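Board work, copied verbatim: CNH domain-containing protein
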Amino acid sequence: MAEAAPQSQLTPRPPPQDGPFILRKLVSDLPLSADGDAADVRITCVEVWNGNLYVGTSAAEIIHFVLLPPEPDDTSGEPTAIIASRLEPPHSDPNGPGVQQILILPKVNKACILCNNTFSIYSLPELSPESNFKPIACLWVGGVDLNEGQDDDADGGVDVVIGLKKRLRLVHISEHSPPRALKTIEYGGCLTSVRRDAYSCAADAHSYALLDVVHQQKIGLFPISSLDPDAGDVGGAAENIASIPQPPSRSVSNASPVPRVQEEQRGHARSTSLNMLGLGGPPSRTESPRAPRQRYGFDVPESLSRNMSPASARSPGRAPGGEAGERSSSLPRSGATSPEKPLPPPPEGENVPQVQVEEPRKPPPFVPLRPHVASPNPNEFLLTVGTTPSEPGVGMFVNLDGDMCRGSIQFSSYPDSIVVDGSGIDLAASTGPDVDAEEGYVIAAVHREEEEELMYGVEIQRWDVDPSDAESNKEWLDLSGTGLLTQETGTHVATPLGMRTVVEPYDLILSEIGAKLSVKRLQLGTVANPEEATKATTAAQVKADREFTDRLSRLQTRNLLWADDQIWWTVRNPLVLRLDARLEKAQFTATGDGTRIQPDRRQLEKVLGDIRGQEPQNESEYLSLIYIRQKASVMLFMDVILRTKTNIIIFENEKRITEQALIEGEVDPRVVLSLLPILQKEVVQGPEGIQISGGITTLVEQFLQQNDLAAMPTDINGPFGDNLLHFLKRYLQFWKRQKGMASVTNDPNVFRSVDAALLHILLLLDQGSAKGSSSPGTHRAELNELVDKEVDCFERAVELLEQFKRLYLLSRFYQGNCKSSEKAPNVLATWKRILDGEEDKGGEFVDGERTLRTYLSRLRDKSLVEEYGAWLANRNPKLGVQIFADDQSKVKFEPSQAVALLREKAPGAVKEYLEYLVFGKKHTQYVNELIAFYLDTVITELESNSEARAMLAQTYETYRILVPPKPTYHSFITDNAIPAEWWQARLRLLQLLGSNQPATSSYDVSSILSRLQPFEQELVPEMIILNGRQERHQEALRLLVHGLGDFDTSISYCLYGYSSIFRPITAGHLPIPASELPSRAEQSRLFNFLLQDFLQIEDLSQRVERTSELLERFAGWFDIGDVLALLPSDWSVDVFSAYLINSLRTLVREKAESGIVRALSDAQNSQASCEVVVQREKIGATFERGE
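↓ predict structure ↓
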C-alpha cells in the first residue's frame, strides 16, 4: 500500500453543504429565444406540473417542455427536458414585462396566463387556448385557496381572483364550462394576494390589506415602504368593500382618492396595525370586548371602531426596521403624550438654556418596493416591508384577524422574492410538537451592492422560532454548484435570481443519499474467489437493493430557483446529507492539505453530541442517524490511529470517547480491524465481503490508500498498545457479548473476526506476564475465559496459539471448542507435547503429569486411556500405573490386562504396577509375580554382569571390617545405594521377603529359594530371610554373624524374629507388631544359637567383645549353667564378670522373691484356714442319723 495516494485521490473536492437547503438542477441551457439570441431574454416565471415544465420569458413567450425521468443508472438524477411547444400568449403591449404569471389549476386541467397585463386561459398539458374565453386586461391573477386540497370537490371547479385596475373579481373556473364571475370586490391595483378559505392577504403598490372575500370586508395592515409618500395612514377598523352604490371605502389605490376627513376617521377607528409597526398613536383598546352573538367577516368590538385615539403624525423618514427585531406591541409607550394636549408653559423668571436643535437627517429617496405575501400555515400570513431595496427588510406575521401573531424577522435587504417551506414546529404546544411537523423556513432572494455591482443571494432562516434565534441561525444557500460567477464564499452571484413555489410537490431522487446509505462491499485487498463473490449477488437482490435505495433517496420539493437559462430545485437538505457534510468538514484539520484524511476530533465529538438522544421520525432518518454515528466513530478511530502512528500517547478521555462512539455506532467490527496493521489479517470475509454503508466504504478505502499502515510501530509497550489495544479489547469484548441478540447481525464471519482479533490482542498483551497460573482481573484470566468458551474462529485460534507458543491455552481451547470425539485426543496430544519438552511460554501446565493422570481417569475412551496411560507409565511409572489400578476411573482394567499392556508398552512400569497392586491395593495374589519380577531383575543382572557380583561381595567385605558400633547391613546398603534398577529392585525384594504381613508374605519360599541357590554367596540377606521362613534359624543366624558380620541385626533376629531384620525402623516403635513377637522360650533358644555363633567368630577380640556384650545385655535369656558350659575355660572371669554378677544377682533376687512368695502363700493359707473355722462355727454341727 503506497504512502502517497494517486493524484485523483488528492484532488480537492467541492465544499460540503450542511445548510438546511441545497440546489438540484432541473434543466439548463434552455432555448429562451426562438431565434437563438437570448442575450436580452430572461426567465420571468416557471411552473412544473405532471412531468411538464412551463417557462415564461421576458420575450412574452411560454416554452413548454416535457420532462423525461432520468435513467436508473444516471447518477445525476436530472430529467431530460424536451421542448414541446413555444407559445406567445395574446397581449397588447409589446414592451411589457413579458409573461408575468403561470397559474396551474390541476383540478380542472387549466392554466391561467398573465402576459403583459393580459389574462388568458389554456388547457393542460399542451396549452391549448380556451375557445370560450376571451383574453382580458388585468394586473394580477391568483388567489387560489391554499386550504383546498387537490382532490377536494374536483367536479366543482376552482375559484380564482383576478386583479383588475379598480377592483378584484372572484371567478369560478371549471373544466367543461366557461369562467363565471362570482363576486366583485372593491380593491383596486392588486399586485399579489394569498388566500386561506375566505380570507385573503393582498397588496397594491403601497400597502397590505386583509380581505374577507365572502363578506367583502377589509382591514388595512401596513405600508410596504415607510418612505412611500402616497401610502397615507394605513390601518383601522374593518371596512365594507362590497360593490354597492355608496361612498367607497378606503382604497389603497391612488386612483381612488379619499377625503381627508374619512382618512382621519379611519385613523381614529383603526390604529392597532399601525402600532404594530410603530406608525400610529396609542390605542384605546384596553380590554377584550364581549363576544358578539355571531361574527360576520371582520366585525370588531365597538371600542375599536369609535373610541380610538387619533393617529400620530407620521414622519416620512421613519423606517419600520427600527422595531423589526422585536415583537411589536399594541400597548402605549411609557411617557407618551397625546398630540392634542398642549405642553406646559416655560417657568417665568428663569433663564431657559438655549438648546441647539440638529437638523434631522434627510431620508433616502423613495423607491417603490414589490410586495410579497406568503402563508406559512393556515392561520398566518407573512408580509414584507422595508424602506429601500438595499436596506434590510422586515417580515411581519399577521393572523386571520389582522393582528401581529409572532415576532418579526429581518432580511439583509428587501427581498426580491420569498417562499416559505414547512408548516413549522409549535414548541409551545401542550402535547409537544407534532411528529410529522417540519421546521418552518423562509427562503428569500436578496441582493447587495459590492463595488458598484449588485450581487444576489438566497437567505434562509426559521420563522417558527424566536426571532433572536432565527437571526443567529440565519444561513445562505450555497450557489457554488450553479455554474454562475460566484464570490469566494459561494453564496452570491452576479445574476438576478427568481424563486417560486410550484403547484404540486415534485418527486426527485438524490443519488447522494443512496450512495451514502446503500450497502456496498468494502474492498480489502484481492477477493479470494471473485467468481463466487459475483454469484453471491443475485438479480433479485440487486433489484431489491435498487428499490430500497430509491425509496431512501426519494424526496419531494415545491420550490424552484432560476437564473439566466438554468432552473434548480431548492431541496430541503436531508438529515444524512447535512450531518455528513459536517463530517466531511471534520475529515480534514485546518492545518491539513484538504485532501489527506486528518479528522478533527472536536468537530466530530460535537456532531455526536448534537445527535445524542435524537429520535428519528422515519426510516430514512433512522438509517441516517445510524450511518452518521458509525462514520463519526470510524473517523474518531482513524484519528487515534494517525496520532499513534506518530508515537503520540492519547489522553484517556479521548480513548473513552472513541470507545463509546464505536460501541454506540455498532459499525461492523471488521471495518475497525481492517485499519490496524497487526489485526488486518484477522478480518474474515465471506463471498459477499464486508457490506457497509457506501459513505463509510469510500472513507475507509481512501484512508487505507493514503496511509501505509504496515510501517506503523506496533510495540505493545508503546503508543500502539496504550492507545489502541486496551480499548479495542474492551470494544471487541462488547461485540462478543452481543452475539445472539436479535438486533445484532447473524453473519458468522463477523464473530469469527471478533474472536480472532480478541484472542490476538490478549495474546499480545499477555506476553509480558509472569509464568504460571493467572489471578483474577489479569489478561491471562481473560485469555482463559475466552478459550474456555465457544470461539468461532477455530482454525485461526489454533494457528495463533501455536504461533505464540501457548500450548496449555491450546489444550484449554480444544477442551472448550472441539467436538466430543476430537476433544480428548487433541488435549492429550497437546499436553504430551508440553511434557516432552516443547516450549509453552505461559508456563501454566504446573504438575502436568498429575493433571494428565486425573484427566485420564475421567475419560471413557479405553484406547486413549491405554495409549496415554502407558505413555505416562513409561515417563513416570509410579504415577502412570495408578491409571490402570484406579477403581474410580471411568475405564477399569483387569490386573492381568494391565500387566500385559504394561509389559508391551511400558515394561519399566510393570514393577510399579505390581507394587501398587500389592502394597497399595493389598492384592496378595500378585506377591509372587512381584517377587519374581524383582528376582528376575536382580538375577539377570548378576548373571550378566560380573561387576554386580563383585560389587555385592565388596559390600559384604566393607561392612565386615567396619568397627562397632556400626549401622545394620540394611541401613548400610540403603544409604550407599546406587541408582541402578537392579539395586533398587533388590531393596524392595528384601522388604517384600522380610514382611510378615499376610498380604505380602504368602509367597512360594521353595521356588524362590531354588532360584537364589546359585547366588547364595552374593545374596546373603535373601538367604537369611528364606532360612528364617523355613524355621532354619540357626543357619540364618550363622549367615548373619559369619556371612555379614551384622551383629545388631542378629540380636534383632533373636528378639523379633526373621521378619524384622530388613525393615525400616521407626524410633519409638517396635519393628513388628507385638502380637508377632516370638515367645520368651523361643527367644532364649535363638540367643543360645547366637551365643554359639559369637563364640565361633574368628577375630578373638571381636569374639570376646561381642560375647561379653551379648551376655551382659541379655543375661536374662541365658541359663548360667548352659553359658558356663559353653564358655572357653581359658577365658578370664573378667570377660564375663558382668554377666556372672548379673546372673548371681538374679539368682539371689529370685531366691529372695521365692521366699517372700512362699511366706505370703503361708499367710494366705493360714488366713483361709481361719476363715474356714469361723464359717464352721457359724454353721454349726450337722447331725446325721443312721438308719
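Residues 1094 and 1107 are 6 Å apart (CA to CA).
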